[in-house]
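Chapter review: from sequence to fold.
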Amino acid sequence: MNKSPMPAQSPPPPQQQKQQKPKPARIHPSPKQQPSVARAPAKDRTNAGDLKGGNQIRLSYSDALRRYRHDRHDPDWWKQHFTVIVLVRGGYYYWDAGYWCPAWGYNPAYEYYDYDGPIYTYGNLLPDQVILNVQRALQQLGYYGGGLNGSLNAATRQAIANYQRDAGLIVTGAIDAATVESLGLQ
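The token string follows.
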């Protein structure tokens, strides 16, 4: 067998280079995209946009809790990763697959959260509106005796936990889909 090296090929003449077809672009999914999350127009980040439509996935509370991270990021990071970000009461929240979550670091001047975790939402409601509706329903059922203020404080979380226990739900002390449905709020 002849093991002589292959001769090096010289580049094609300039006329042949122009005649070659360009290779199609390779499409790589962006790590920023989250196809399971409904997206509102990027320019208006002050309202919740249309959260009702299309192909949305609603996570379970345990999945939402696993997905949520108490990580601080600047506004640019938040805007690159989540389209819907709102200022409610004393803090910014981002919307992710059916839950509102605190957006830590979005604006250090507004970082007051009564509850550090996901809050289930329904019907295009902001987190304080969902909390207020849950408080009202729990008050009518005799579980909550505090003020109707839209705050997921310790008294509200305890009332939710008591209701969940009595209703045979998984006790989280948080607003989740099963609790909202059981209260008849959807």
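Two observations follow directly from the output. Residues 22-55 have pLDDT under 50 and may be disordered. Helices lie at 14-19, 61-67, 75-81, 127-140, 154-166, 177-182.
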